Structures are given as C-alpha cells and as structure tokens.
Amino acid sequence: MEEDASLLPEETLSDGAPLVEDEPDELEEPEFVGESPSMEAAGRAGPGSSSPGKGQGAGRRRRRPAAPDRVRAAQWRQDLSRLDKLQEEKVLFIQRTRGELRASRQRMDLVAKQQESVAAEVAAEREANNMAAVGRLEAASRRLRLELEKERDLQSRVTAVLQESERAMWHMEIREGQLEGVRKSAQEEAVAAERFLQKRAAEQLRKEAEAAGKVERNRLLRVRKSTHLQKELGLRHQKLMEDAQRSRRQAVRFLKASLGRVREREWKAELESRQHMQRRMDAVLALKNSITANRETLRKFQAWGQARAELAEQRAQAEKEAVLAQGGDAFRHLCHQRRQQELEAQNHAFEEQQKLRKHEIVSRILKEEAEEESRKKQRPVPPRAVGRPSLRDKTWGYVADLCEGSSAVEPPCYLQDNSLTAPRPSPLVQAISSESVQGDQGSSGWEAETLAMPEIPGLWTEGYEPYQVPKEDADWKPVGGTKMDKDIPERTAQRLRSGVTHRQVASGREFKGHPFNSKPKLIHFKDFDVGKVYKKKVTLINATYTVTRCKLLGVEEPLRDFVHVDFDPPGPMSAGMSCEVLVTFKPMINKDLEGSVSFLAQTGRFSVPLKCSTKKCSLSLDKEVIDFGSHGVGETASRTITLTNAGGLGTRFKFLLASESCEVDGSQSAMKISSLFTYDDKTFYDKIISSFSEQQMEGNESSPTDVTSQKESGKLDNVEPEEGRPAESVGVAMTTAVAMTTAMTLPPNEEHTEFSLGEITEGEIGPFSSIKVPITFTPMVPGMVHTRFKVTFRNQQCPTLYFNVVGVAVDVPVWVPKASVDLKICMYDRLYQDSVLVHTRSKAALRLKFEVCKELRGHVELLPETGYIQALSSYSVQLKFLPRQSLPEDAGKYFDKETRVLEAPMTIRVADQIKPVEFTLHAIVTTSDLELSPSGVDFGYCSIYEAVRTQVSLCNHSLLPQEFGFIGLPKFVDIQPNDGFGTILPLEALQLDVIFQPTKAKEYNFELVCKSEINRCFKLTCRAVGVHPPLELSHYQIRFAATSLYDTSVATLYVVNSHLSTNSLTHAVPRVGSGDASPVGPTSFEFLLPPDLPITISPSVGTVLPGKRCLVQVAFRPELPSKLIHQEAFQALTKEAEVKSSGKDTATQRKDPRRQSLSTLRLQNQASTSQPPDLQKQDLKSSSQEHQAARATLTRSFQGKFDKFVVPCVIASGDTKDRKGTEPLSFSPHNTLYLELWCPAVAPSIVVTSDRGRTVSNFGDVAVGHRSIKKVSIQNISAEDLDVKYSVLNPNGPFVLMNPISKLPSGETHVLELSFSPNESILAQETLDIITRRGSLSLTLTGTGVASMTTCSIEGDVLNMGYVIARESVSSGFKLQNNSALPIKFSMQLDSLSPRSEKQHPLPRFLASRTQRTEVVGTQNHSGQSVFSVVPIEGIMDPGREQDFTVTFSPDHESRYFSDRLQIVLEKKISHQIFLKGAAREHMMFVEGGDPLDVPVESLTVIPTSDPERREEAEELKPILVTLDYVQLDADTPAPPATRELRVGCIRTTQLSPKKTVEFSLDSIASLQHKGFTIEPSKGYVERGQTKTISISWVPPIDFDPDHPLMVSAVLQLRGDVKETYKVVFVAQVVTGT
What we know:
single chain, 1634 residues, alpha+beta, 77 strands, disordered N terminus
C-alpha cells in the first residue's frame, strides 16, 4: 500500500478527506444506495456468501449501507476518476516523450551523417592544402560534435523519463486492477439507476395516457352537451323569432293608433297656436292703440303741468312782490316756505312708515299668540323657574367670560376649546353689550331683530301673559305620589339618622372632635388614567376615650360612579384600636374630582377627604437669565438651559423669541370670536373673517395695518347694516373682529439676532423628565446684545415661560474696506494685478501675515507675505493673478467649471487677534482659444471645370471678443465673407465659406493660417485632388423659360469627347490627380437624377466616341410638392371640423345660453390647434377627394417659384454596348461633371373648376353594358384667348369626349362631357391632354366595369330540412354575400309558386324512371299553401355585405317526398338554385335507409284519417328492403363485408307527449347471425332531435350458394308516442369480378 500511495500525486493523498466531506454523495436515490454494497463488505463476504436480503425475497429492498461505507465508496469512486484522469495524462505524456525520443534519434543520425561528410571534406581540403577551408571545416566538425553530445545527453534524459513514466503506468494499472470491483459496482449502480428511470418513465407514461383518455372522454361529453345546447338554442331562437314577429304586428297596430293620436294632437296644437297668434295680434293692436292714447294723455298732463308751474311761478312772483312791498326779505321767505314743505313731506312719510311698522308688529304679535295657542293645545307648558337663567343671560355670560379670558391672559401657542374662563367682562364687551343690548329709545325695532331667538316664542312681547295652569291640570297627580311626597320621608329619616349622637364622658371629661383619625388624612389618587383601577387602604384609629363603633355612610354624590368603598364594620373598638377601609377608584372621565367618604360614629358623623387628580404638567426652567459675558466679533460661545417637567403629563414645547407671536388655528380663533356675537352678528362676522382669511392666505404680503385698511376700504364697505342696525354697533363689531383676528395672527418678526437656539427647538417632553436646549452666541456687531426668549406649550394650562440672554460683543481692530476684489474677466496665461488696502483702528503697530488658500498658491500671489501696519494707518498689499490651464483642477470647490467663476478666499492674520480678516477674490477666467471645426478639410476630387465650396465653423470659446484674419492664402483658395477677416463675439460661432477651384490635375496639400489679435495661430489643414475629366459639357448651366404647373419645357446640350491623344507635352490630358492619363476611345456617361425632382433627361445614359458629341434633352415639368398639398388638405379638413363644431356650439347656445362662454373657449382651443389629432393620423392618397381639391386650390393661388438643381454626370471608359447583359459599367466617382439647372415655375393658363379642381375623373364602378357620363368644367384664367386642341383617346376604349371646342376666351368656362361605357369587367384608365400654346392640362379618366358576384353559404346546393311532425314547422337559414362593389337587387322564386312554361310537357312522375325524372317540385300541402317559404323575398344587398335568408318547412300531412327548388334571381338573372327537401310524420319516430319500394308521387285524393283504435287493430307490417352485395374480386383474397345502414330517429316536437324518447328493437338476431349477418346495435333508444344508426354487415357463410341470393327477414319495432312495426327484408348476394 505504501508503494501504491507513492504513485498518486501528493494533492490527491492530502486532499482526499476534505474532498469526500465537501462533495455531496452522488447516490441521491435511496433505491440505488440499497443495491450498491461497499467493496469492503463484498470482500469480506466472499463468493460463497449470500445476502440475507435475498433469503427474505427478491421484492424487498436491501438495507442502506452505513455512513462510513458510503463515505468509503464515494472516496473510492473519486480515486477511480482521478486515476483515470492521471492515466490519460500519463499516456499522452509517454506519447509525447516517445515522439521526442524519436526526433532526438533522427537528429543524431543527421548529425552523424553531417560529421562524416565534414570529415570527408576536411580530408579533401587537406589534400588540396587549403588550410582556410580546413580550419572552417574543423570548426564545423567541433560544432557538430558538441551537438551530438547534447543530443546524446537529451536522449538519455528522455529515456530515463520514459522509463519512469512507464513504471508509473504499471503501478496505475495495478491500482486499477485493485479497484476493478469498485468500477463494476459503479457500473451496476448506473444500470440500476437507468432501469429505475425507465420504470418511472413507463409509470409516468401510463398516467399520462390515462389522463389523456379522461380528457378525451370529457371532450366528447362536452361536445354532446354543446350539440344538445345548440339544438335547444335553435328552438328557443325559433320561438323568439315567432314572438318577435307577433310583437311586431302588435307594435305596428299600436303604432298606427299612436300616430293617429299624435297627428290629432298636432292638429289641435296647430289650431291652438293659430288662435294664440290671433290673440297676440289683437293684443298688439290693442297695445298700439293704448300707447297712442297714453301719449295723448301724457301730452295733456305735460301741458297741465306747465300751466301749473307757470301759475305757481306767478303766485311766487306775486308773493315776492307782496313781501317786498311790505319791506321784508323775499329770499328768506321763500326758503322758509320750502323748508316748511319739506318738513311736512317728511312728517307725512314718517307717519306712513310708523303705520307700516305698527301693522307689522301687530301681525307678528298675533302670529306669536296663534302659535302659542296651538302649542298650548298640543301639550301643557311647565311654569318657568324663577332662579333659572334665561338663554339671553347665558349667552352674555359666556361672552363676558370669553372676552375676560382673552384680554386678561395672553393666548398661548396651542389653544384648546375648554380654556375660556374669566371672572368679569372686559370693557370692550361691556361697551358692545351696552350698545347692542340696552340701546336707546329709538332702537327697539333693531333690538327685536338682532336679539337671540327666545326659548319660548312670545315671552318678550309686550302683551305676554304668564301661563296659568288649568284647574283640570292642577288637581292631577301621578300614580304613587309626586317626587316631593317621596322625598319628605327620606329627608326626615336622614335627618333623624344624622341627629343620633351620644355625648361621651370619661373621667369627668367630655370628648369633643373627630371620633376617628384617618391614616392618611387625605385619600389622594394622583395622575390617574381613565379606565384603570386604583386601590388604597385607609386606617381608621379610634381617637375617643372609650369603646365606640363606626359605620360607613358612603361617598358624596359626584364620586359614586367612580369610587367604591369596602368596609367591614369591626364592631365595638377600644380607644386606640384601628380598622382598615379599602377605597377603589375606577375613573371614567379625565377630570379632577374632590369629595369625602362619610362615616357615622356614636359621637356623630365624620368624613375622610378624597381627592382625584388628573395628570398635569409642572414645567420650569433652571435659570431666568443667561449671561455670556464679553466675546469678540466672529467668536462663538454656547450655553445650555434646562426645561424640567415635574408633573405626570407630557406636552409639546417650542422655544421662540419673545417677539414672535403664537400661531393659532384659524378655525379655533374664528369659533372663539364668533361667540361674541348673536345670530345676526355671526353672519356679519363670518363675512369679515372669511375675507380676512383670504387675504391672510396670500402669504402675509401686507402688514396687519394694511389688512385693516383694506378691509375697511374694500370688503367691509360692502357690509351694510341690516334692518335698521345702528352704524355704531357695526363699526364696533368690525373693529373688535379685525383687532382680535389681527392680534392672534400677527406674523413673526424676522429680525436678525446674535443669539440662536440649537437643533432642539421644539418637541415632546415626557412626564418627570428634562430637556437641555443649547443657546449659541455669535456676535456680529460690536455692542451689548439682549434678547428675550419664551417657551410655549400645547397644554393651555401650562403658562408661557420666559428667560433673558445677555452678551457683549467686542470689535476687531483690523479690517478691509473692500471685502471683495473683482478682477472681471481674465484669460489663461496672462498676468493681472490689483492692490488691496488694509486699515487699523488700533493704537499700536500690528504684524500682518497675508495668506492664500493652498489650492491657488500656484496662481495667486500676495506681496509682501508679511508686513507691519502702524497705529491708526493703512497698509497696501499687491495682488498678482496669473491663471494657468490647471486652474480648474487646482482650485477645486472655489472654481465653478460651468460658469467659469472663481471665488477664492484670502486671509489676513493679525497678531493677538483670534478672528482673521478675510476678503474674496472674484474673477471670471476664460480661454483665448479659437476653434476651427473641422480641423481638416478634404475637398476630395474636384474637377477643373468647377469650384468646390465647404463650410468651416470658427468658434470663440472666450468670454471676450477677438479679432481674427486668414493670411497667406494661395491663388486657388478664397475665403468669404470679408476675405477671411473680422471680429468674433464671445462664445460665437461664425460660418466661413472656403472655396477651392483647381487649375490643373494634381494633388493639393496646404494649410490655412488664422491669427488672433494676441498673435495666436490656428491652422486649418486642407487637401484635394484636381481632376481633368475625359468628357465635357457644352453647357454647365441651363436656364429654362417660365413653365406653368404640370406643363413641360425642354432644353438641349451636348456631351463632348475632345480626348484624341495621350501626349501630355502638347496639351493637358484627362487624368485623376497625378495618375495615368485616361485612354483614348469611346467614353460613356450617365446622369444621376435625385428622387422627387421635376426633371427628365433623355438620354440619361450614352457613349461618345473620340472627337464626337452626343445630344441630350433636358425636360422640366413643375409640380406642386405632395407635402404642401397634404398640408393644404389638412387645413381644409380642420376648417370643416371647426365649422361643424361651431355650428353645434351655436345650436347649443341657442338652447342653453349659459354654455356660451364654454363654447367660445372651445372654439378658441380649436383655433389654437393647428391640426386635429385624428386628421393628422390620416394618410391622404393622391387620388382622394381632399388631395385633388387641395391641389386645385394651390394651383389657382400659385404665385410662381424658382428652383436651382445640380445633376451629377458620371463618366466611364468603354461603350455601353460592350457590357454583358445588365452588368453596369465601371463609372469612376472622380470623373464627375455637374449640370446646374435654373427652373422657374408659373401658374397654369387653364384650370379645372368643377369637383374642387380635381383633374382625376373617376367614374367609379359601372355595370357592364351601362354608360356613365361626367362633366368637367375648365376655365381660362389667363389674360388672352387660347386655341384648344385635344389628345386622341383610344378609339376601342370605353372613354369618349362628347363636346370638344376649338377656342376658349379669356375668363370663360366650358363644360366637357365625358362618357364611360365598359363592355367587360375591367379597370380602365386613360389621359386626356388639353393643349394650348401657353401649356397643357392633363385630365386622368378612370373607371371600373363591374360584373355581379355573389357567394352562397350552402354547399352542394341542397338544403335538407329533415323530418318534421305534420302540421308543425321548422326553419333553417343560409347567407348570401355580395362580393362585388355594387349593390345588387335580388328576388327569391320557388318553382312550386312559379308559372310553368307551356313548352314543357314532361311525363308524369309515376310513369318516368328515377333517372328520367326532372321535376324538382315534389309533394305539396293539401291546403294549397306552399310547403316551403323563404324570407325575405326581395331586396337590395350592399357591397361586401351578407344577407340572411330563412327557409321555413311547414307540412300539413305525412310524406317523405316534400321537395321544391329555390331560385335566386340577381339583376334579372338566375344566380343560384337551391333544392329544398323535407319529410313529415304523424308520429315522433321514423326509419331511414334501405331500398325504395314506392315512387315519390302521391295521389291528389285526400285519404281520410281512420280512428286510432281501429288503426292499431288493423296495423300492418311496413316493409323495408335492405340489399347487400358482397363484392369478391379475387377468390384467394378475402373481401370486406357488405355493409348497409338504417337510421332510427326521434323528431323534436313542441307537442306534449308522455314519452321523451323512442325505443327500437330488432328480433331474430340469432338466426341472422347464423346466416352471416351482424347487426349493431340490435336495440336501444333515441333522444328527441337525434338519430341513431343501425349498422348491418354481411359475410357469406361457408354453406352459401352464390347462385341463389339469400333472403331473410326480421321485425323492427319502434315505441314512442305510438308503436310501429317494420318488416326488414335482407337480400344478400355475392358479386364476383367476372
């Protein structure tokens, strides 16, 4: 084993155990593990031992090996795999080693041969006495000898390695033989695993097959169910159709009646409207007459008034003269007289107003008395208590408490609703109450309107009488006595119990005081929570002199619902003895409670006080003043203040400046203030508060004073006194509301303070906890600073706490007057300087040190770095700024790369000064780069006949303007504009045109230099190749004449080949750059036209021989761009949509004027939208109506257009005829010529005015053989008369011009008539050109000849209706689809209803054979009605639509030969023929199949129906013949059996029947089987609406004689609603091939 271990690698032996532990066991299946015993167990057992598991049976599985055996087996398997891998590697290594050994031996043989050859050469050279060659050959011999020795050493080493490898291979084979048993066991396990997988796969396959079978059965069941359901749905649909038809008939009848009534009502309404119109006309005439009479009367009154005025004036003049005559003052007399008249008028008006008010008061009093009387009748009213306050007293008491509470205490930051308590009203409320309640003598009416609603209407009226209890109610008492009668004995007993006292005298002393002392003296439940239970024990000690007793009386009334006392009386107690009392408290409300527990002793009553306290806050600050002392400006100091809560209730706190006001909830403030007013005042106050809150929500843009002024000037002016309300009370109410609202909503003062609070300024403070809040002092301005802070709490019971903060700020002695040094805009790598001035107020010299931040020390310098500033003087320091390219990376955060702004802090440190002096360096750093884009220009291959232009962008990346210029330009280059000189603005990009025109064919490489004003150079590299093409054009530019739209202009040019010689000394030869000259010979060309170009070149491809030229025609046909036409079409559609929507909106506005603004807004939105989304999505085709209309509109409004086009012409050597097939010539892209075209377009002279200007006349679909005529109007819109000619139409085509003209005057319109008459189904299109000398107009004529095409849904043209109960009906439908593009008129014809032709004289059907019968009309109804009917009979089918037809089969007697033919006539032609068949039975069963034994003809005589009973007695067997032919073509080969089928069916009927199924049975089955017949099934049943097939097969028996056919019979019985018997005769014979 040691030798074996030495053969394996070290990592295999060392890592064996970890690998076994890390890798999982490969035998995951327990079945496999049980069948693989370990090698060790197999070795120990030996070949003769047997497994105990085999003795117990092969079906049982073996035991699972132990864990060590599994681990050992896994390790052996790993060793096997590794051993195989090592063996493979060793084999490969041995093969490579042997290959190397063979190569070494070959090299040794080669070297030996070389040595022999060299030795021979040495001998030969020595004989020749050539010492030089001998020395060289000896050196080569020594080299070969050394190589031979090296090869021998290598061969020995390789041999040793090979032997070692072979030895290792032997050891491996030995080891492999030792592990052969393990390998075999692994193979057996693999085989067992494969068997198990196969077994499991077979089991899974079996399960899947069972599942598939189950699914198939379920599918068949679903199919049967669906079939049954479809049949039921068919019957239901038929019933619904019948009900619908019946309902339709009734509806038509009712509709006619309703229409009659409606017409009658309309006639009556019209008659009434005429009468109403007549009355209105009469009223208008009467009104006109009345107006005329009133005008006359008015004129009379005016004349009378003028006369009275003149008379009054005369009287006044007379009085004036009389007064003057008496020596009095006439003016004073007149004034006195006028005042007296005005006073009389006022008195009269006042009396009238007083009368009205009196009547109103009296009516109100009477109304209240009536209401009171009605209320008294309903229920008695108890007398009002004398001491009970009224609602008015409660209201004003509440107002007084509120005003007192709000004025006495400053409102906290967090308010609650139950916090309004105060002892007395404020003066403001007293003023309001005195004015609003007492008033003056003249405000009684206002008081009646503004006071609160009384509790009982009528109590405050003048005529109110107290309620008197009726006598019948006075003697009434409730059952059991009144409450007073019950309380009298109870109070008497209580008084007697409390009065039972005994004087206690002991040793001559009388005891006085409490008989018992309680411990504790006060029962106090602190900080309770609602819902919890608290218990306390109280000890009662006898404090008397002798023995006494104690009894529990209870707790007070307010505490009985929450406190329960458990006390067991101990009996007589000696002096000093004690007893215990258990007090249980279960709070239900969060409220402080106080009371006592009462006891009764012999000496009298005593009580123990009880108190229940809710959780409260007890907040305090540890200090009221914080003194920071003296600190310099810029320094920072911090102190802390502690907020302590010694109570059991937490609350929310907030630290604020004392100047900041509380933020009160608007809803609470509004509620509290609104309680100051009565009902009428509240509505008035709501207006004030709502308007004030609206302005407050705007963001506090105005001060409270402005708010008050705005309210007074704006919204408050709109509030008018209501119903005689005094203006003073309104003003007081407004002032009070605004003042109180302003006081509660004052914004905080945003003043800057040196004292700041820490991070914790607000939060929650818990019970029995404390919070420390830091306060920071940062002096900014010298001087003493004092700030007052406050702490507010959400709990209103907690008062606001205040504390003061004091500090002194001391100024610094050195400062800089300019805190910022702005260097404006600076460029990189340029020096900028400035001076900084430093001042001092110190009286001593100070040492200054100037520092630059370390990021900018390579760019900024302060000189000198250190200096001394004298007392009370200034000092100047030099600032040097030289920005370098590395500034953005070095500056870091001080430089913004986007804005290029540099903000660098500079520091001046002063000795003995803590705060340094700082100033900031500001600069915008920019570059001076000019960028040429692109940096290199490649003009490519340029012809000497043209100039190439390219654009170059010159961008200024600097923030400063710069001057530039291109210098030293070559002769063949030009730069525009301004010859390459100019000024470029900051961050501007200029587009420069570089024009290159070569003079000869060669390669060009040059540079263009651009210099800036600071002498910086920027280069542009250019290169090009000059080309001399082998062909040239006679004209490189063509200017077309003005061409009208859709007309054509033609120009000519020549392509010239002047290349005759390749001698470059005499003339310039065609070449590309410095390449070879082009060969002399035929040269081809091709013009490449871009797409969508109105240019046509003919020929576009050709060949020119040397010294020759080729004529080329260029045609120009201007057209409108399709994009422009689409845009115009979209605009037209948009306008139509707007017109439609505006029309709808106008109609809506007439119906509902309130929607006018909405419709206007909708029109504005539609107008602002360029195109509707649905119109944008449309794809307008060139043949659409909108497209043609837009094209005509644009053509008429066309103002002209000028375009320039450049067409390239490529050149290739060779002839186009020499190319093979479609192989293109090798055109050189460098030898390219360019043709420039100038194309002016003008409006046409003749336009189409009809059909929106469409030039396409589409006749649409026209039936073959018909003619359609269209009219097209053309107009001459030019200024002169035009001669008109026409192109020739196809004489054999369907289009014809019917009325041509030869001349069209200016401005005139002519209508052309065009006809289209197709002779076949074809799509035709032709073009008609209207030619004038100023242009032509093309009309496109299109049309389609259409033939009728339909498709029927019935296959085979036979519609079998099946079996039906006689006198019942069944319906079936089919569809007919119109596949043509035209509507088709159809009609249905039944042969049974159509008149027969007189020319047809066929034989009777019962005389003709079955093959000779051509009649399709079979048995018909005896009633004369058609047995078949179809709906609809006629109509029109739209293109592409389907028409549903319903065929109804209604037989009235039993027959199997009902038949008819339905002919579908389309456009007077028979399109389809459908054969209709059906059968009828009197009973629900039928049998089909067998050979016919009768003819399909019935007698016209009606056979009377016999009695059912007699019919059953005389029932006969109905014969059925079944013939079976056994075809045997070959005697040696067995032939298939002869088969036939009989079908038994049950007819679905709506009649009631006791049986739902039909049962059938066939007897004599055994005898039939003996004779070779097989019948399946022989019996069964059939559901309604279904059929069942009886399969009959026959094979001739052994004893059958082929010459004599076999004939047997059997009886077939059917049982349904009746019983029917059929005799089935089977005739069988053998048919041979001979």
